[in-house]
TrEMBL record:
Pfam families named in the record: Methyltrans_RNA (PF04452), PUA_4 (PF20260)
GO molecular function: methyltransferase activity
Keywords annotated in UniProt: Cytoplasm, Methyltransferase, rRNA processing, S-adenosyl-L-methionine, Transferase
Lineage: Bacteria, Bacillati, Actinomycetota, Actinomycetes, Kitasatosporales
Catalytic activity: uridine(1498) in 16S rRNA + S-adenosyl-L-methionine = N(3)-methyluridine(1498) in 16S rRNA + S-adenosyl-L-homocysteine + H(+)
Name of the protein this chain belongs to: Ribosomal RNA small subunit methyltransferase E
Tagged with keyword Cytoplasm: yes
Enzyme class at the top of the EC tree: transferase
Annotated Gene3D superfamilies: 3.40.1280.10, Hypothetical PUA domain-like, domain 1 (2.40.240.20)
Domain Ribosomal RNA small subunit methyltransferase E PUA-like: 19-65
Gene Ontology terms: biological process: methylation
Family named by the database record: Belongs to the RNA methyltransferase RsmE family.
Described function: Specifically methylates the N3 position of the uracil ring of uridine 1498 (m3U1498) in 16S rRNA. Acts on the fully assembled 30S ribosomal subunit.
Organism, scientific name: Streptomyces racemochromogenes
Length: 248
């Protein structure tokens, strides 16, 4: 079992550190860590250090000692961003959770024309905060030290601008005639950025496909079955990670 991960603003250089607040409470009152157990402290941006529990004090103070050198996980050679159309209900958090566990590097919410869910005003701000909190907690749970970035919700025009900057721009499509090339055999760059668009339950509209095509994006298919929008991004991320060597 790998050591549990806790988030800090700045990774301590040691030799001792007190983990307090919500993270300390989780370590002491939820995880019930005991002296001698290993932990990892990370800023979620790639920097991390291993340590050993010295003591648990009260309900929310964990004293960590024997902190080792600060390490830094390098940025991946091929960075994978999933543009996720807004699903209904809590399916958005499910998508963020599973994509984070799988290893995606960035997630961008997309207000597609066929999305039933609408992010506006206070509701939109709360929904975005939930996605970001989910990415953080899922990053910890999956023992990552570099959590995925969750960007602001984008319009179709803004997504097209993002696609235009990618080294490889892709749109998942369920129609085998429209998307004749499978994702599993697509030519991937050896380095740079891959941006993959996942449409809503109603699919990417012809107008949106045209806009994305002008930005350089091509349609690709996953397989014979049609996945829900909340699971398609996870499946596609797994395929891409396996092909870039990050899974293996």
């Amino acid at each position: 079992m790998t050591a549990p991960v806790f988030v800090v603003e700045e990774v301590p250089a040691g030799p001792e550190f007190v983990l307090e607040g919500p993270e300390g409470r989780h370590a002491v009152s939820v995880k019930r860590l005991a002296p001698g157990e290993d932990v990892v402290l990370t800023d979620g941006r790639g920097r991390w250090a291993e340590g050993v529990v010295k003591a648990a004090e009260g309900k929310d103070r964990l004293v960590v000692t024997d902190l080792r050198e600060i390490r830094e996980e390098p940025e991946p050679a091929v960075r994978i961003t999933v543009v996720q159309a807004l699903p209904k209900g809590d399916r958005g958090e499910v998508a963020v959770e599973t994509m984070t566990e799988t290893g995606v590097d960035a997630i961008v919410p997309w207000q597609a024309s066929r999305c039933i869910t609408q992010w506006r005003g206070e509701r939109g701000a709360k929904s975005l905060a939930k996605w970001r909190a989910t990415a953080r907690e899922s990053g910890k749970q999956s023992r990552r030290v570099r959590f995925p970035e969750v960007g602001e919700a984008l319009s179709t025009k803004q997504v097209a601008a993002l696609l235009a900057t990618a080294d490889l721009a892709m749109v998942l499509h369920e129609d085998r005639e429209a998307a004749s090339e499978p994702l599993a055999t697509a030519a991937l760059p050896e380095s740079g950025s891959v941006v993959l668009v996942v449409g809503p339950e109603g699919g990417v509209s012809p107008e949106e496909l045209a806009v994305f095509a002008e930005a350089g994006a091509r349609p690709y298919r996953l397989g014979r079955s049609v996945l829900r929008t909340s699971t398609a991004g996870t499946a596609a991320t797994a395929v891409l990670l396996a092909r870039t060597g990050r899974w293996g």
